[in-house]
Amino acid sequence: MQTQHTKFIECGTDEAGRGCLAGPVTAAAVILPPSYSHASLTDSKKLTAKQRTELRKEIEQVAISYGIAHVLPERIDEINILNASIEAMHLAIQKLKPTPEYILVDGNRFTPYLDIPHKCMIKGDARFLNIAAASVLAKTERDDFMKRLHSKSPDYGWDTNKGYPTKKHRKGIQSVGVSQWHRKSFTLLPTQTQFDF
Fold first, then answer.
1. Reading across the β-sheet that carries 102-106, which strands appear in turn?
2. Domain range list for the chain
3. Does residue 34 have a cis peptide bond before it, meaning omega lies within 30 degrees of 0?
4. I need a surface site. Which of 66, 85, 135, 191 has the fewest CB within 10 A?
5. What is the spatial distance between Cα 37 and Cα 79, in angstroms, rounded to a whole number?
6. Rounded distance, CA 133 to CA 11, Å?
7. At 144, which helix (H) or strand (E)?
8. How far is CA 147 from CA 6, 44, 99, 101, 156, in A?
9. CA distances (Å), 3 to each of 54, 61, 79, 89, 159, in order?
10. Rounded to 5 degrees, what angle do the CA atoms 76, 47, 151 make?
11. How many angstroms separate the CA atoms of 19 and 5, rounded?
């Protein structure tokens, strides 16, 4: 795992929830101290929920700055999931103070933010601490969001599947229909032909 550059203020950014059928896509951006290190901090998907929760507390305490942003299903349907993911990253970066001078992005697609140089990194959340930190914040914030939605709409099992296309989630769609939190532009059921919205 690599630390960040020391010559300029660098942030890492990542998103969570791109492959879900429901809920927002959530992004985070993090500026860590250049000297920061942590043996367990890595791609959030490789961590347990307990590890992510513990790491989130530490990241929020030690980070120079962090920002988290949601882009909701209606907007996802309007501009598509790739553009919504990038928009969420931009919104998260916008919350950072000081403004970063360099942006490390997890993945291979990004639209420039202001005139700040950036670099896309495949599997960056397993290679750079600031991207890994953003991964943890985005994942935990989105999971909490979906748990809150579950309390209002328990039929879909969002407390466990977080909106991903599991059997329980799709069974809920079949039995009670589509909610306001579903992404209407996604294939919600394998046999879907058309929904009346």
1. 65-71, 25-31, 10-16, 102-106, 118-121
2. 10-148
3. no
4. 191
5. 37
6. 10
7. helix 129-152
8. 38, 18, 32, 35, 11
9. 20, 18, 34, 20, 34
10. 50
11. 31
Specify the amino acid at residue 36.
Answer: Y
Instruction: Count CA within 13 A, CB hemisphere, residue 14.
Output: 32
Threshold 0.70, pTM exceeds: yes
Cα–Cα distance between 191 and 124 in angstroms, integer?
Answer: 35
Task: Tokens for 193, please give them.
Answer: 């032909």
Q: 53: which 2 tokens?
A: 């929760």
Sign of the C-alpha dihedral computed for residues 148, 149, 153 and 158 taken in this order: negative
CATH T-level fold of 10-148: Nucleotidyltransferase; domain 5 (3.30.420)
Q: Which amino acid is at 49?
A: A
Enter the tokens of residue 51: 């590890």
For 30, the token pair is 């993090």
Chain mean position to CA 48: 16
CA nearest neighbour of 99 among 119, 113, 84: 113
